[in-house]
Structure formats: C-alpha cells, structure tokens
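Supplementary Methods, section 5.1.

A reviewer requested that the exact input to the structure prediction be made available. We therefore reproduce it here, unchanged from the version used in the analyses.
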Amino acid sequence: MPTFRPVRIADVIPETADAHSLVLDAGFGYRPGQYLTVRTPAGARCYSLSSAPGVDAAPKVTVKRVPGGQVSNWICDHVHAGDVLDMSGPAGTFTPDSPDDDLLLLAGGSGITPIMGIIKSMRGGAWSLIYANRDADSIIFRDELDRLLPVTHWLDSERGVPTADALRELLTAYPDRLAFVCGPEAFVAVAEKALQLAGVPASRIRVERFELGSPESRPSADSAESRALVVSAESRALANSAEPGALADSAEPGALADSAGSRAAVEPGALANSAGSRAAVAEVELDGRTHVLPWAPGKRLLDVIIDAGLNPPYSCRQGQCGACACRLLSGEVALVNNEILEEEDFAEGYILACQAVPLTDSVTVTYQ
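The structure derived from this sequence is encoded token-by-token as follows.
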C-alpha cells in the first residue's frame, strides 16, 4: 500500500485559467511520465509529474480543473505556496525505455502533463507531438512546448473534435515510432484507432488515461478478462495466528488460500460463478461513523460508498494506486484487479475498495 508523507508546496504556477502546477519542496527519485497520489480534505487523486528528473530543479505536478471534480477544484482554489499536502508515490509505467527513443506523442487537454515530463527528459531521437484542446486559451505549457519541439496543435474551435480518420493523416509518416497517448477517454479511444489505421502495431502504443469512465463503463466483476484475488478476513486472522506453513500444510488442494492464508488467485470462470452477481450488505466505518449500505449486484465497493453520498478516499479506480485501500474486518471479497497491494498489506487486512466485489452476504470494512 502506498505510504503518504507531508510535502510542502514551494510554488504554485498558473498555467491556464483552469490549470495550476504545484512545485514541490521534496527530493525523491522518479521517472518521466510517472504520477503522485495527492491526498486533500476533498479526497485523494493521482496527478502526473510534469517535470523531468535531472532537468527540473524540483518535482512538479500539474492539476487541471475537472467539471464537478471535488479534488481538482479544491486544489486550484485553496492551495498556495507554503501549504503542505500528503502525497505518495511516485508510481506508474507511462515512461520511455530510453531517453534516445524515437517517439510519437499524442495528448489531449491535461494529458500533456506526463508527456511534458517525457519531452523534457529526452536526449536524442526524433519526437513529434500532436496536442488537442478546445481552443488556444486551453493549451497548457504552450510557450514552453513551442521552445522544445515542433507541435501540431489541434483546436476543436477551429477543426472540430478530432476523428480517427483525421488524426491518421497526421500519423502515417511515423509507423515505426513508439507512441505515447494520454488524455480523456474519448480522445484516447480516437487516438488509438488512428494509430492502428496508420499502421502502428498495438505493441508500440502506450496509453495513460485521464478522466476515467463511469463504473458501468468499466469491466464488470465477471468479465471474461478478469483475474481476481479472494481476500477473507477469517483466513487473514488464521494466517496471523498460525505457525508459518501451518495453513499451507493443512489446506485441501484447490482451497482458496495461499501459503499466507490471506488471498488466492481465482480463474475468471470461478469468479463469474461466485462474485459480481450477488447482493450483499456493506458495513463501512468512515469519518468516525458506521454506515450500513445495500450492495447491489455488479457493483464495486467504492461505487457503493460513493453512491451513498459519502466521501471515501480514492484516485485511479483501476487497482493501481492504493488510495482507496481500507481494512477488511469481516466477510470475504474478490479483488478484480490489484497492482499495488503486497503480501504484508493483505496480512494487515487491506483491500482495494475500487476493485472489491462481495463473496459473502455481508462485508465489514474500516477506513479508521
């Protein structure tokens, strides 16, 4: 699970009317294109580093207002130089293998943030950037970008919303380059299609998505592509009290327990038969209060809590950042995806609310 630490804001730079960069008074190693998880009184979100290690004097994240976005608007309205925010990271794999790679970069809106860090870190190779925005006033880092490399600007106000066919005409000269794509979901979908039409193989396309879709648009718990982890409060308690290896020695073949007794991988078919299609009750301890919530079939725990009008911590909603982690006190859940929690986290009872679906009729978790 990510560890948060206080970070002082050294400076706040207004980039556009809707975007601010936070310069951090912190020294840590990171790779270009990675992100930090920022925790605020309004919640926690992931924000990409727009700085480059070894190039910029201090790390910097850039935050753009999202309509209705509690955290982005809180940061833009309330954070000033000298303030302190809790942050964890850096994390993420949206980063080049070499600073000498030949790159084709496609960004939409705030998707320029990690790509800016990548651009500033490159030493050799050939780079091309296509950057889509609503209008000229929406372009983040405009002057800096124009000094660094040639940019093909796509402005909706002049050319309409980009289509796959229109973007393909700009990409056909670069079928052998490694493509990096970042932006809102709609832009990413169009850009990926355009790259395929231009002959860029899928193996050479790397994507970082912002403004993730609604819970209903994400893979369901019983998706054929899912691979899950079963996490049980009972097995965790047994694992913490048993002698090393005792559970592994006593478990029947195929039992839902690994050598730690706290989790096990489940094949998609097994998950489809047991999770995602059942109703349950979630008992959630949050902000000093206990809430008993109906858990409808097909929903993730985080969505259940948010739909009840509560404000739990979360960020990426993809099982990658750990901002939504809570402790499982009773019951059993399946985690549809997990790219952050490790054995010691499971031993302490942590699960990811954004990926949890119920395997028992009742589940109790705490954020305390």
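The CA atoms of residues 11 and 81 lie 5 Å apart. These observations are discussed further in the main text.
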